[in-house]
Amino acid sequence: MRATAIAQPNIALIKYWGKRDIAQNLPAVGSISITLSELYTEMTVQPDASLKRDELVVNGEKSSEMLPRISACLDQLIGLERTFARIESRSNFPIAAGLASSASAFAALTVAAARATNMSPTTASLARHAGRASGSAARSLYGGYAELANGSDGIEVTTLCSANAWPMSVVVAITQVAAKAVGSTRAMEISRQTSPFYDSWIEQQAGDLDVARRAIEEHDFAALATIAEHNCLKMHSVMWASRPPMMYWNSATLACMQTVRRLQSEGCDVFFTIDAGPQVKAVCLPGEAARVRVALEHTPGVIEVMHTGLGAGARLLDAS
Ligand code: PMV
Q: Are the C-beta atoms of 145 and 273 separated by less than 8 Å?
């Protein structure tokens, strides 16, 4: 059977940075994210007994770079005796540039692969498999506001609030399209081994999660804005203080942060968050989106601006 699934990337408001178990890819901290609606990755999986190995096509071109991680994820999910498959991935946004492309890719992959092999695992089980391939991918199985809890026997993702219950807009400012120089797995390890701030980052995470959870429950934008910016800047401080330092920002990243600061000073309900890449995500109430978009489009160094709302978790599109 051939199956196609779609998943949206998610943006962490309280970030995952650091692993407690590298072999099982278990995070050192919990995280809270929002799943987006307009950006997407579609994955088609078609097992084929005539293949000698998996084949991967990304946006119409054969690709070997992601293949080992994709094959390992399929081995985990389906088993080592599985039939090799043809896998096709299409995304409508730059990949590997700090826009959570691996999150949407692995979330969609698990849904498509399970259907293509006639398995019917729970969403929780798919999230654990996706999370093993890419920590943040577990959250893209869920829509709206999701929390990934880092329990003693693995991860567990829950929906804190649906996309409709508290609509939000995200304006993404693309400041660079090239793939990032240091992948997040390696960067997290460098942080753990060398950053003098790593331990306090881990210690403070439970408190940040509590504050953000409460802000989402109460739909308190100002409280969410303050804790999300603080948590983001703290994660980047851990990276900056690592040896070698990991600096994912460029001058346009900083200019976008200044634009958000200016909008805030004018009373606009907006805050920024930045992941392991130079793109800036400005999160705002939907009524502010047009203003935020224009301001970021006019910010020096911004290449492109995308606008999205909040969306649903990974789901099946087609199976035949
Ligand atoms: O899932 P990974 O390994 O790509 O790591 C994601 C790390 C951040 O995007 C920086 C934070 C997060 O929680 O998404």
A: no
